[in-house]
Amino acid sequence: xxxxxxxxxxxxxxxxxxxxxxxxxxxxxxxxxxxxxxxxxxxxxxxxxxxxxxxxxxxxxxxxxxxxxxxxxxxxxxxxxxxxxxxxxxxxxxxxxxxxxxxxxxxxxxxxxxxxxxxxxxxxxxxxxxxxxxxxxxxxxxxxxxxxxxxxxxxxxxxxxxxxxxxxxxxxxxxxxxxxxxxxxxxxxxxxxxxxxxxxxxxxxxxxxxxxxxxxxxxxxxxxxxxxxxxxxxxxxxxxxxxxxxxxxxxxxxxxxxxxxxxxxxxxxxxxxxxxxxxxxxxxxxxxxxxxxxxxxxxxxxxxxxxxxxxxxxxxxxxxxxxxxxxxxxxxxxxxxxxxxxxxxxxxxxxxxxxxxxxxxxxxxxxxxxxxxxxxxxxxxxxxxxxxxxxxxxxxxxxxxxxxxxxxxxxxxxxxxxxxxxxxxxxxxxxxxxxxxxxxxxxxxxxxxxxxxxxxxxxxxxxxxxxxxxxxxxxxxxxxxxxxxxxxxxxxxx
Length: 494
Prior knowledge:
This protein is α/β, with parallel strands linked by helices. The protein is 50% helix and 12% strand.
């Protein structure tokens, strides 16, 4: 019944998608014609190439290509699969990516084949199609979830496990009735455990009787009997590490009866570590990683780094020249190059305007006794190696301007933990090395929080890890906004 419903919904979605694409095509054609009319009448100066559109018959090639292109891309992105666990952001992602792909393919094809068709028309077409596809899927998703709340089109599941994963999963399912998932019972596969009764009793207490999520059943045989007695659509395995052999046996039993099985990917339940699944040559792989992982927003962060660093290098060229002249008032090169450690331990050369006397690195050992920072990092407020002009540079962080080049080429980012020296990293404990899990930056939390006041390396690491664990694009924007006054007022100086 559930598969039949899914096939009907999928078929209706395909029909609806094609209708939306046709409507988007007609709206783009006649809407652009209207815009051209008002543009000519009122001289609005809209950026549309061409004075008039060709007859609509000449544009049917775009419609045909759009129907085929959207069909292929939407299929590849799984747009016609089950929407039970789909979020609004995923719907938007599917529509946005498919529209971008179709636009690029259409524009490139028409350019290569020299078809005299307006690219602005194609842009308007895919924009309307993308918006229409998103709205249609949103409406379908809302309807299905309303339908499930009424007790229709639900799935019966058995959760195998009575540990923290099972508890978390149960509470999530019960709190989201729109998913249409009914838990018929919990299975205990490890029936040999000495504290089994106590474990089950604690689990029932944690679940609370008000959840009403079924009974606890014991052993593989009882689960197989439950598959026969109840209309079970899926068996979900959690907390599987101690019962691997029983899980394998039960998966085979479910497969023989055509019942779907799922294994919770966060197998080890280790706090901040998040899991994900990918496929390599048909082999499913489970990945474990800490935040921010492979979030797509990191790609946008990198794009922002390139744009801001590139523009800044051009606009600040006169400042670079003035600072370079000032640096040459003392003997030595203009730039100071030092090996630092970047993303996941990659070595790179970090560039700064030289602010110390020539050969300052060789005298560092003599000053270790005056180190003001507790931990594997050196910090000294009145460092005798700093030149008079270097103090001015450091006060307003001008010595760090050349690191914009490191940002531009990808060694660093605008925002991120400061890149450490390899010798310091060799003294890190295991937890502190997680600072290297994100691309190092020009500025970060500790620099806009009064870095002169931080004299404990542990506090520094804590701020960096909090930044990594709670990373967001908006957070980066806030830190960049706070950095500007800190630099101008010199409050971020070392």
